[in-house]
Specification:
Helix content is 30%, strand content 20%. The chain is of the alpha/beta class. The chain starts with a strand and ends with a strand. The mean pLDDT is 97. Among the domains are: 1-8 and 25-32 and 241-382, TIM Barrel (Alpha-Beta Barrel); 390-595, Class I glutamine amidotransferase (GATase) domain (Rossmann fold); 604-666, Immunoglobulin-like (Sandwich). The protein is globular and about 75 Å long. Helix 1 packs parallel to helix 3 and helix 11 packs parallel to helix 12. The longest helix is centred in the N-terminal third of the chain and has 27 residues, at 201-227. Residues 389-596 form the Beta-galactosidase trimerisation domain. One of its GO terms (cellular component) is beta-galactosidase complex.
């Protein structure tokens, strides 16, 4: 990238009246230099089977090019038109809830030959129409693609073929999954039941893994089609999303971002987050770290919020804070969904940069300052690179495994809750990190690897983690790690299985704690924050030292948190779910031991510091204030220029951060 991209999704087809020239002028006034089009409007481009009309696409492309605004064209395959479902109802996904019904988007079976026929046809017709247009800088494949829980007969048949290839024989399958339980074992491939009703977690989790490969295959298939038409210098991307909790929260259960992103030139994501009093920047940072880590390179934020919902409409200054927060994590593009608020249908009140009156407003006016600063500071901020010493290992398989075997029957906590418990406290300690996965090579590139709930793991992966520690790495393992193999079969050894070697601890019993605290409050938190909850392992150290025991009349002899020297490295093991305050203390302890404790760690949230190296080889430091209070601090770095104000600051000089504001320093 030669410049930061600042953009919006634009749907001329949704406008209540024609105003393309007006919109373009307002975009130019706001510094918008890219728009995303076409991914949502298949029915406009093919109103009847085999009847194609790209008038709206061509009109927008021509007008944007004339105005000097670049365009990303999306393949319109994630929302099928009515005629297709009427003629071919089999294109709708059959899920655990039964046959699909038309209405919403993302309701199709992405493996349906009929759907794939029509999808390929619309992609090729669109590409033939737009391929030589000079406005286009890239293409987006589909949108927020997932498998949509497609699990009908055709998918079950493909799953059996997948199992045959992986296990070769039904005996091997039965043994790996323990299917003899309740007479579930299969002795002929043609007897394989639908997985929809299974009670076997291994079988069900393998199906989830298979469904994720369907997403990989579908996206790679589209990429190969688009590659036939795209010109040199045009990128191909996808708009990945995250587990949704009313906003972007954690690892996406239905997509493996690391495998699905492989065919793309650059990873794209959408990131939505709480705002107003609840704006912390954590979701912006987490989503960015995942996106950047998929390819260890810069990424695109293809969607984020402008006004959106009433509880997200940003306070003055927050839109700027949010935009530069994305850049600080390594984004080369920030784009809003969407330019204008629409006037009917499902997302009427998911508001765009413009409200329903389509006139300038305070949020739009603030966007104008972002566009101007992006243009001015692009040479300093585009292509920021990071070299982090800390990583968190995430596992889609463990996420699925924990969903099958919850912490306890009364708890709704899942894998992502534990991941975010760790990530959020690192963030508040101003520790930047990469997100790695079980196939990541060169673990030794990191001084500290944190491993949350690695419930599902092969012997090979656990051996690699043992070797990492033995050769000098520092690791923090949490409860439920090492418990089962890659087929969710519980290991018959003492827990935590193979990593007992580096952790120096073992256990046989685990319980749901009630009124249990850590004895002697080892991390010095408020008494109300010293309690453990939901899950608790009764640890017996073998070679480890005990950092904390349980304060309980029956369980007081057992360790709760331990640390162990092994070879040249060190492993911490957390045997229970603790408060965020205790987790912060554990992580601080591990960071100091791994020699990662630096100037930034002495500064805490709501002041957040992000770092990068720009194309000129200069260090860039962002200092953000995620609070409604004025924050004053001593400037902690060497003498440098603050890029927004163009003032110079010396180390130790007092700087003032207004509410929801930030400063950018070039060292």
């Amino acid at each position: 990238m030669k410049q930061l991209l600042y953009g919006v999704a634009y749907y001329d087809e949704y406008m209540p009246y024609g105003r393309l020239e007006t919109d373009i002028q307002m975009m130019k006034d706001a510094g918008i230099n890219v728009v995303r089009i076409a991914e949502s409007t298949w029915s406009t481009h093919e109103p009847q089977n085999g009847v194609f009309d790209f008038t709206s696409v061509n009109r927008v492309l021509d007008a944007m090019h004339k105005a000097g605004i670049s365009v990303i064209v999306g393949t319109p395959t994630y929302a099928v038109p009515t005629w297709m479902v009427k003629e071919h109802p089999e294109v709708l996904a059959v899920t655990k809830q039964g046959a699909g019904k038309y209405g919403a988007r993302q309701i199709m079976d992405i493996t349906s030959p009929t759907y794939l026929f029509y999808a390929e046809r619309i992609i090729r017709k669109l590409m033939e129409n737009v391929k030589d247009h000079p406005a286009i800088i890239g293409y987006q494949i589909d949108n927020e693609t997932k498998h949509y829980d497609t699990s009908g007969p055709n998918v079950q048949l493909q799953f059996v073929k997948y199992l045959k290839e992986k296990f070769k024989t039904t005996d091997a399958l039965n043994k790996a999954f323990g299917l003899s339980y309740w007479s579930n074992d299969v002795h002929a491939w043609e007897d394989m039941p639908s997985v929809v009703g299974t009670i076997n977690g291994s079988f069900g989790a393998e199906f989830s893994k298979f469904q994720r490969t369907l997403v990989d295959d579908f996206l790679a298939w589209q990429v190969e089609i688009v590659k036939e038409y795209r010109h040199e210098g045009q990128f191909i991307t996808q708009n990945f999303d995250f587990e949704w909790r009313g906003y972007s929260f954690g690892v996406q259960p239905n997509v493996n971002h690391f495998t699905a992103s492989k065919p793309f030139d650059i990873t794209g994501v959408d990131i939505y987050h709480p705002s107003q009093e609840d704006l912390t920047g954590i979701e912006i940072s987490f989503g960015g770290d995942v996106a950047r880590s998929t390819k260890q390179q810069n990424y695109l934020v293809l969607e984020t919020e402008a006004q959106a919902f009433s509880h997200w409409t940003p306070f003055p200054g927050q839109l700027r804070l949010q935009a530069f927060s994305h850049v600080a994590s390594g984004a080369n593009m920030v784009a809003y969904w969407h330019w204008h608020s629409i006037h009917n249908s499902f997302e009427t009140y998911w508001k765009g940069l413009l409200s329903h009156d389509l006139k300038p407003n305070p949020v739009y006016n603030e966007a104008k300052t972002i566009g101007a600063d992006f243009k001015r500071l692009s040479p300093k901020l585009v292509n920021l690179k990071k070299k982090n010493k800390t990583a968190i290992l995430v596992s889609n398989e463990s996420l699925t495994g924990v969903s099958w075997f919850k912490f306890n029957q009364r708890s709704e906590l899942n894998y992502n809750d534990i991941l975010r418990l760790i990530y959020d406290e690192l963030y508040k300690l101003n520790v930047e990190c990469d997100i790695i996965h079980p196939e990541t090579e060169n673990l030794e590139d990191y001084s500290l690897i944190i491993v949350p709930c690695l419930y599902v793991a092969s012997d090979q992966l656990l051996d690699r983690l043992n070797q990492y520690v033995d050769k000098g790495g520092h690791a923090v393992f949490t409860f439920k790690s090492g418990f089962t193999d890659e087929n969710i079969k519980v290991r018959t050894t003492n827990q935590p299985g193979i990593i007992e070697k580096v952790c120096g601890v073992q256990y046989q019993m685990f319980i749901e704690p009630k009124r249990v605290q850590l004895a002697e409050n080892p991390y010095g938190v408020d008494e109300s924050k010293n309690e453990v909850h939901t899950w608790m392992e009764l640890l017996t150290p073998t070679t480890a030292e005990t950092f904390a025991k349980y304060d309980h009349p029956a369980w007081g002899e057992y360790a709760a948190i331990t640390g162990n020297e092994c070879g040249d490295g060190y492993a911490t093991y957390i045997g229970c779910i603790v408060s965020s305050e205790v987790m912060s203390g554990i992580l601080a302890q591990a960071l100091k031991r791994a020699s990662i404790w630096e100037t930034e760690q002495e500064i805490r949230f709501p002041i957040i510091i992000k770092s990068g190296v720009n194309d000129e080889g200069r260090k860039i430091k962002f200092i953000f204030n995620y609070s409604a209070d004025i924050e004053m601090m001593r400037y902690p770095f060497e003498e440098s220029e603050e890029l927004l104000s163009e003032k110079h600051y010396k180390q130790g000089e007092t700087i003032t951060l207004n509410p929801w504001s930030f400063m950018i320093f070039e060292l």
